Every structure is written in structure tokens, then in C-alpha cells.
Amino acid sequence: MLREQDLGHRIVVRRVVGFRAGRPVFSDALGELVELTETHLTLTTRTGRLRVPMAQVHRAKRVPATRRPAADAVVELELAADEAWPAPVRARLGDWLLRAADGWTGRANSALPVGDPDRPLPAALDAVERWYADRGQPALVNTPLPLAAPVGAELDKRGWDSRPTVLVQTAPLTALQTPTAGPAGGAAPAADVVELDGGPSDEWLAVAAGRKGGLPEAARHVLTAVDQVRFAHAYADGTLVAVGRGTVTGHGRWLGLSLIEVLPAARGQGHATAVVRALGRWADATGATDAFLQVEQHNAPAVALYRKLGFVTHHTYRTRVAPG
């Protein structure tokens, strides 16, 4: 039967779901084991969470430990995203990453639980809480889903809160250069001039500060401490109308798009599309092949724009917040 060491692994469970003509009827379930008690077990399956009473379990075993391509792809992209948004204070807990940046943005001030923390899951989360407490910061954990579902289940037990779901979306760079039809598609105005610079201007920083609620010194490190980075400034009639940031990370494969922001008076005129395409051309020239971005699921206008540009959801994550 299953043991605590099986938590977080793929499990196949044969369970009794009824009887027919006096004989048991079985059903198989496959998923990640996220909870195991004397009375029941819980799996995260493709269709959601499944709680199975132990009295119904006929047989259960771990699936042979071969890493799934989908899981590998999530880890690869999460590490490329971490490289693109580098926190100035960093530590490791086994394979897990611990990050701090004076509280500026959740991504730069959260643990990233990918890989093996080199200790049981409860002990790993205890260590995360201590690390952030030592820095006078609330403990945050980013949980890429479904990869980190066991972590999320443990945090649920501890009463951690959750911030809104974030979509991690990807697109091939070739898709970013395909014109979209009509003004609603966000086609770039002919008058747009997009300049790409190795550092942000004061105007660029002012727009970013307005969106993110200030820019402490740690924020400048997060924004600039990447080997390949460009800051986009879009002008219409000589006036700054939009900004954006692009990085190339993940062994040169991934263009990371962040802080795509259009000034309020200029919205709905295609300036965001112009910024994305300019950064896409730059990344293509470096040899990158794909782009990624992170957008909150409830940000409907941004999600709609990125869909028209060819982005699809690769996976999601939720930032979990320690109680108190």
C-alpha cells in the first residue's frame, strides 16, 4: 500500500465503485497523490481533485518514476521566468528557490517549489516560513499548477491564502509578427515609433512605478540584472504612449514579456501590439524562438489582446500567502 513517501508522485488507484450481481465493480484513477490519511487519500487528476475513502481502495501503487514531458516543460519555463525577473536576494532549499526583493512584486519575493526540496514537504515549508521570517517578510510561495499541487494541498492544511490565478502563456515568435485584422485586433498605428534601449529612461521608470506602486532599489535590480534585456518606448507624435520590457533567457530560447503598459489616454489604439512586435523582432534576431508572459486570469482586456497575438495558456500558478 501507499506510504507518506509517495506524496507528490503519480499514483494509480483501483477502487470499488459498486456491486453488480454480487461482484465488485472497479474504476481506475490516475493522478498525483496530495493527501494520505488513515481514512482516505486524495489525488489531483486531469478533471480535478478526487477524494477516495480507504475502504474503497482495492489496490494502489506508484506509477514508474519517469518524468513527464509536460512537467519538464513547466519546470523549464518557470526557471526561464525566474531568470527573467531576478530577485537580488536568493537561496536554495534543495532544488527549490527562495527569493526576496524588498517586497517588490510577488514573483521576486516568493519561494518557487520546483524539483526536490531535499526533505519532507512539511519540513520544507517550515524552512520557507523561517527564511522569510528572518527577513521580516511575509512568506509567499508560487505554486505552478498542476506541478505543485501537493505543495498547494499542504498549504491548504496550513490555512494559507491565495492571490488570483495567473496564466503563464506562450507563443512562437513567428506568431507575433502576423498582422491582426482590423482595429479591434490591435494592429499597430503607422505613426508608432518603438525604440528599444538597454536601460529604462526616467519616463519608462515613472510609468512602471505608477503601475507597481513605486520602485525601491531592489526593483532596479529585478528590472536590469539580466544579460539580454531591452526596454521598449513607444511614441506617437513624439509623445510616450506605451512601454514594455523584454528579456531573453532559458538558454536563449525564451523572450519574456513584462510591464507592457499603455498610458490611459492612448489605450485601444494598438500601441501594446507595436511594443510586443518590436520586442519580438529583437528576440528573433538573438536566436530566440518562443515568447512567454504572465497575466492575471481576471484581466480580461489583456487576456483578449494576447489571445489575438497568438498566446495560449501553457500552465497557471497561484501565489500563496502565509496567514497573518
From TrEMBL:
Keyword terms, alphabetized? Transferase
GO function term, MF aspect, one: acyltransferase activity, transferring groups other than amino-acyl groups
UniProt-listed InterPro entries: Acyl_CoA_acyltransferase (IPR016181), GNAT_dom (IPR000182), Rv0428c-like_C (IPR056935)
N-acetyltransferase domain spans which residues?
A: 191-324
Which PROSITE patterns does this one have?
GNAT (PS51186)
Query: Sorted alphabetically, which SUPFAM superfamilies does this protein's record hold?
Result: Acyl-CoA N-acyltransferases (Nat)
**Which Gene3D superfamilies does the entry mention?**
3.40.630.30
Name by which UniProt lists this protein: GNAT family N-acetyltransferase
Q: Which organism is it from?
A: Micromonospora zingiberis
